[in-house]
């Protein structure tokens, strides 16, 4: 039986239409107060976490915690910050609102949870500006690592390309320079190596760059590079080929390392984003539940005060 039916007295008219309340169901004062309190608690805890986190990092070798440990600790602390601030702000929102008279218990519960959710949402908007730089850094870590992979792929010929562009601004572009070099390769590789030191180095750089783009250096190009290395260094053909293979392997290892770093940063960014979204959802639930708890305790206190005063004469 509803509250309205409970208050019906014998002989009273029951055909009177209920009057709609002119007061809004939203009390912005407690919502704003709870949001401000939650934002303040968030900033305090973030500064505390930053101070603790700096103690885990040291420029001295062997004295810092691992990157994985620091990352996991930071993620856990962000979750704790979100939950504590949401609980505190939601509880204040529920305790500070005025008592709703002649409102069904279910409606009071719904309004309290809605007020807690709005307080959490407002506090999240307030704090979003302070967390924007951190989230941007996490989201851009994967892109930066991918850019490093691309730089590593072109590290073999980047400097030579710049040198070639400085010395010959009218020559062919880098996309066609490799094929031009292939057409103009001399029969005697030693003559090429001894005639023009800078041109030979630039040509090798363009070959390495083309190999980095294609994923491998053809055997003919390897033999040509080995011939130039042999003529320049006095090594035998076999030793020169071994040196060429060693350098090419170092380039491939650098590419693989950069790709591994990019993949690790991507996974870390994805994990941080998932944990952050889950933490926000749980924070919203905690704020709503805390507001319902605070509102119920406030109504109970009001009822106790009313009972202690006794009936009005």
From TrEMBL:
It comes from the Bacteria. The chain crosses the membrane at residues 25-54, 66-85, 117-141, 273-294. Keywords: Membrane, Transmembrane, Transmembrane helix. The keyword Transmembrane helix applies. This is Transmembrane protein. It comes from Rhizobium mesosinicum.
């Amino acid at each position: 039986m509803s509250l309205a039916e409970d208050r019906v007295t014998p002989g009273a008219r029951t055909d009177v239409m209920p009057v709609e309340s002119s007061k809004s169901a939203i009390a912005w004062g407690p919502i704003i107060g709870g949001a401000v309190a939650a934002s303040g608690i968030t900033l305090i805890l973030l500064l505390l976490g930053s101070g603790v986190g700096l103690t885990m990092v040291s420029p001295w070798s062997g004295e810092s915690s691992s990157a994985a440990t620091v990352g996991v600790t930071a993620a856990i602390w962000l979750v704790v910050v979100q939950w504590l601030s949401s609980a505190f702000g939601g509880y204040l929102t529920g305790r500070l609102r005025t008592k709703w008279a002649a409102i069904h218990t279910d409606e009071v519960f719904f309004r309290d949870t809605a007020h807690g959710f709005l307080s959490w949402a407002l506090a999240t908007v307030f704090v979003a500006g302070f967390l924007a730089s951190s989230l941007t850094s996490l989201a851009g870590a994967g892109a930066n690592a991918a850019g490093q992979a691309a730089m590593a792929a072109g590290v073999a010929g980047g400097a030579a390309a710049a040198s070639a562009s400085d010395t010959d601004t009218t020559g062919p572009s880098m996309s066609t320079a490799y094929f031009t070099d292939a057409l103009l390769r001399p029969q005697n590789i030693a003559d090429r190596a001894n005639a023009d030191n800078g041109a030979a180095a630039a040509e090798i750089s363009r070959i390495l760059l083309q190999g980095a783009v294609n994923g491998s250096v053809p055997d003919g190009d390897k033999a040509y590079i080995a011939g130039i290395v042999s003529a320049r260094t006095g090594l035998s053909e076999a030793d020169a080929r071994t040196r060429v293979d060693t350098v090419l392997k170092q380039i491939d290892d650098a590419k693989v390392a950069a790709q591994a770093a990019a993949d690790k940063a991507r996974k870390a960014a994805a994990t941080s984003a998932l944990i952050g979204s889950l933490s926000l959802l749980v924070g919203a639930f905690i704020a709503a539940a805390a507001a319902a708890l605070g509102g119920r305790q406030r109504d109970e206190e009001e009822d106790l005060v009313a009972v202690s005063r006794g009936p009005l004469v």
